TrEMBL record:
It comes from Strix occidentalis caurina (northern spotted owl). Belongs to the class-II pyridoxal-phosphate-dependent aminotransferase family. SUPFAM superfamilies: PLP-dependent transferases (SSF53383). The keyword Glycoprotein does not apply. It is an enzyme of class 2 (transferase). This is 2-amino-3-ketobutyrate coenzyme A ligase, mitochondrial. HAMAP family: 2am3keto_CoA_ligase.
Length: 416
């Protein structure tokens, strides 16, 4: 072939192919240096492989107590929830191989959406593959350049990313600072619609948004309120409906996004619930909904049964308060600083990233599974070990965890 023949590599192609290995090697060196920096800073995150189902007791190399799951109600391994998943799998199949609007909506999807709306006492609901997707899909569909969204500075990354996707005017107010929120609302009066967006419960600090005050300001300045309830649905409030029920503002919160992947069975999935016209709009315009496969039937079965159990009795949700108080009070009596208040997320504040990582490792050696959190998950200088209480932890489990923390804290001079 000649030099210009289609089958003959050009000079450019030869140069590009000869440079490719060196480019890959350069990329590899850069990545290895960055990874080494993460290890050196003590912020490396290891994944421990679990050889059992999720629950308060796990099997790794040996039996351990699990204090780091979002399995707030212990429903991830509840026999009725598992049975419901198996029945849905056998009746409706492994999956739909389709998005919802083509051929991906089964009766169980519609039943679960109706059940979610009824649980939250809202008009309608829409399912997503995750709450991350629900947060990615709502702001872009709802808000225009004429509107404004006001977001707490410590909102979950999925809320932040969802807001970035929309074209609304963006305001960020200081964490749970109502004076700053009011100032931002005053400045946002020039916009057509104002939406205040906040986590109901903040997952890194275990604190609860001041929804009463937020709703009062929203009413004063003609704003709507959106809350992400991933770390509240199922166990906060008298009936586990979340922070809006806990704080008595269910009729003042317009939109709720939450998850099926934590307290409600722990499998996967998320949702938006609120006014029916909003849900109808999301079915037409929300990109994560339009371009993602339907939730698998087994996941739908799990969540549906979890909601049945919650709506039949509030006993599971009510059991959380005493267990949470037991852990928090005993840890504070031992000399630890616990962030947040009255939430089963109990961050043990340590400050130093290395200390958090080493203490978490020593806790595992004592049979307690907890994880250290450090930058970039939390701000620099605010490393902590996040402990999460479950309804299926016994008093003995909690006491054993506190005893291990006390031993490890003394060993590493984290206690006075």
């Amino acid at each position: 072939p000649t030099a210009t023949s289609p089958t003959s590599p050009s000079l450019f192609t030869k140069r590009r192919s000869s440079r490719a290995p060196s480019l890959v090697a350069e990329l590899r060196r850069r990545l290895e240096n960055e990874l080494e920096g993460i290890r050196g800073a003590g912020t490396w995150k290891s994944e421990r492989v679990i050889a059992s189902r999720q629950g308060p007791h796990l099997r790794l190399a040996g039996g351990i107590l699990n204090f780091c799951a979002n399995n707030y109600l212990g429903l991830s391994s509840h026999p009725e929830v598992i049975r419901a998943a198996v029945e849905a799998l056998e009746k409706f199949g492994a999956g739909l191989s389709s998005v919802r609007f083509i051929c991906g909506t089964q009766s169980i999807h519609k039943d679960l959406e109706e059940k979610i709306a009824r649980f939250h006492q809202r008009e309608d609901a829409i399912l997503y593959a995750s709450c991350f997707d629900a947060n990615a899909g709502i702001f872009e569909a709802l808000l225009t350049p004429e509107d404004a969204v006001l977001s707490d500075e410590l909102n979950h990354a999925s809320i932040i990313d969802g807001i970035r996707l929309c074209k609304a005017n963006k305001y960020r107010y200081k964490h749970m600072d109502m004076q700053d929120l009011e100032a931002k609302l005053q400045d946002a009066q020039k916009h057509r619609l104002r939406l205040v967006a906040t986590d109901g419960a903040f997952s890194m600090d275990g604190d609860i948004a001041p929804l009463r005050e937020i709703c009062q300001l929203a009413q004063k300045y003609d704003a709507l309120v959106f809350i992400d309830e991933c770390h509240a649905t199922g166990f906060l409030g008298p009936n586990g409906r979340g922070t809006d029920e806990l704080l008595g503002v269910m009729d003042k919160v317009t939109i709720i996004n939450s998850t099926l992947g934590k307290a409600l069975g722990g499998a996967a999935g998320g949702y938006t619930t609120g006014p029916k016209p909003l849900i109808d709009l999301l079915r037409q315009r929300s990109r994560p909904y339009l371009f993602s496969n339907s939730l698998p039937p087994a996941v739908v079965g799990c969540a549906s049964k979890a909601l049945d159990l919650l709506m039949e009795s509030n006993a599971i949700a009510q059991s959380m308060a005493a267990k949470t108080q037991r852990f928090r009070s005993k840890m504070m009596a031992a000399g630890f600083t616990i962030s947040g208040k009255d939430h089963p997320i109990c961050p043990v504040m340590l400050g130093d990233a290395r200390l958090a990582a080493v203490m978490a490792e020593d806790m595992l050696n004592r049979g307690i599974y907890v994880i250290g959190f450090s930058y970039p998950v939390v701000p620099k200088g605010k490393a902590r070990i996040r402990v999460q209480i479950s309804a299926v932890h016994s008093d003995e489990d909690i006491d054993r965890c506190v005893e291990a923390f006390t031993e490890v804290g003394r060993k590493h001079r984290a206690l006075p």
